[in-house]
């Protein structure tokens, strides 16, 4: 109404800014798990262990054996827009790390009780930082980082109310790790819930093997069957295709392996799991002639493209991307899957004719 008293414009307090921003980044425990595993991988981890209590609501602990954080930088890691991953626009445009916005730890720690425990190669001891109190003290662990997130959304009850049962939140957390695990057969992953091992995906790659293409392909196949189910390798064909600037690899399920739900469709762009209409549409259209009705194909597709031709800075969670030339990407993915399916299809036709 015209009677409304005008209030002065003021800067929001920092903590409130983080809590508002946290709404975009951390929707539920699985979003925090995803961000923390992103960080572990960016730190060069070879083994990532996730421990959860009550579906991640009471505790998320992500432990890695990566490069670690020196004690003087622990408080900086928690600050908004503080990152070690980019420092200028050029870095942003060619970013090859999972993170770069410097938002996740700030967001997570503003809506939980967070502690960072870390040790770099050069330190004689690890250090533990309690985010709330700011207390920093020596602690024990080997090289790497453990981030502990307790009582997620304890200070934002509106958000906490949207959480589902522990079992559902746990399933989302496992799914978040699964998405990472598919893309990184060189890293071992383990998920514990309430003290029980829920999933474990071991790495079959030695550091020395990572340059060997055959060993890499074997490791990926092994990881695909560990994560997608033992039948997946038999029920799918290898995808390997290049069109212009776009390379597509991975595996595409045979039409018979299709499901009623689209819950086994994994697309990656430069190693990052993405949800993208261009990619899912392209993949589905490759099955146009062989899949009828509402059947959903199964696949894990890895798209590699010049970082300058894709913008990952579209959304805070970076699950969406924007391609500079989406027609080219669509064609590449469609042809990649069509070509892969053509071989078993020709065999089936020949068998039927015989
Ligand atoms: P971003 O990943 O976008 O840089 P984050 O808030 O997730 O932002 O993390 C802030 C910084 O803290 C990172 O840039 C990195 O330097 C450091 N960091 C976070 N997690 C880890 C980790 N597990 N190991 C080593 N450094 C980490
Ligand atoms: Mg991050």
TrEMBL record:
GO terms for cellular component: mismatch repair complex. Keywords: DNA damage, DNA repair, Endonuclease, Hydrolase, Nuclease. GO terms for biological process: mismatch repair. GO terms for molecular function: ATP binding; ATP hydrolysis activity; ATP-dependent DNA damage sensor activity; endonuclease activity; mismatched DNA binding. Transmembrane segments: none annotated. Residues 224-342 form the DNA mismatch repair protein S5 domain. Belongs to the DNA mismatch repair MutL/HexB family. This protein is involved in the repair of mismatches in DNA. It is required for dam-dependent methyl-directed DNA mismatch repair. May act as a 'molecular matchmaker', a protein that promotes the formation of a stable complex between two or more DNA-binding proteins in an ATP-dependent manner without itself being part of a final effector complex. This is DNA mismatch repair protein MutL. It comes from Diaphorobacter ruginosibacter. The chain holds residues 10 to 363 of 669 of the full protein.
């Amino acid at each position: 109404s015209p009677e409304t008293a005008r209030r002065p414009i003021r800067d929001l307090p920092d903590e409130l800014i983080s809590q508002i921003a946290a709404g975009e980044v951390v929707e539920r425990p699985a979003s925090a798990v995803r961000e923390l595993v992103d960080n572990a991988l960016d730190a060069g981890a070879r083994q990532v262990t996730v421990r959860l209590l009550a579906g991640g609501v009471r505790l998320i602990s992500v432990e890695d054996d990566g490069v670690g954080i020196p004690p003087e930088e622990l408080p900086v890691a928690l600050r908004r827009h503080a990152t070690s991953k980019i420092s200028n626009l050029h870095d942003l445009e060619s970013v090859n790390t999972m993170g770069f916005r410097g938002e996740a730890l700030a967001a997570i720690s503003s809506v939980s009780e967070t502690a960072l425990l870390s040790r770099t190669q050069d330190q004689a001891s690890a250090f533990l930082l309690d985010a709330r109190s700011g207390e920093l003290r020596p602690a024990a662990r080997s090289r790497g980082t453990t981030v502990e997130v307790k009582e997620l959304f304890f200070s934002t009850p509106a958000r906490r109310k949207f959480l589902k049962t522990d079992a559902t939140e746990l399933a989302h957390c496992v799914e978040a790790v699964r998405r990472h695990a598919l893309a990184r057969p060189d890293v071992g992953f383990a998920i514990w819930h309430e003290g029980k091992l829920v999933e474990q995906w071991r790495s079959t790659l030695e550091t020395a093997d990572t340059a060997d293409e055959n060993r890499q392909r074997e490791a990926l196949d092994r990881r695909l069957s560990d994560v997608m189910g033992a039948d997946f390798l038999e029920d799918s064909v290898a995808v390997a295709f290049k069109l212009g600037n776009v390379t597509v690899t991975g595996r595409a399920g045979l039409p018979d392996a299709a499901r009623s739900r689209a819950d086994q469709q994994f697309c990656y762009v430069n190693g990052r799991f993405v949800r993208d209409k261009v990619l899912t549409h392209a993949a589905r259209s490759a099955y146009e002639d062989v899949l009828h009705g509402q059947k959903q194909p199964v696949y894990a597709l890895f798209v590699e493209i010049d970082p300058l031709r894709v913008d990952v800075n579209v959304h805070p969670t970076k699950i969406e991307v924007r391609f500079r030339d989406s027609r080219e990407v669509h064609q590449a993915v469609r042809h990649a899957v069509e070509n892969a399916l053509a071989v078993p299809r020709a065999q089936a036709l020949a068998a039927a004719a015989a």
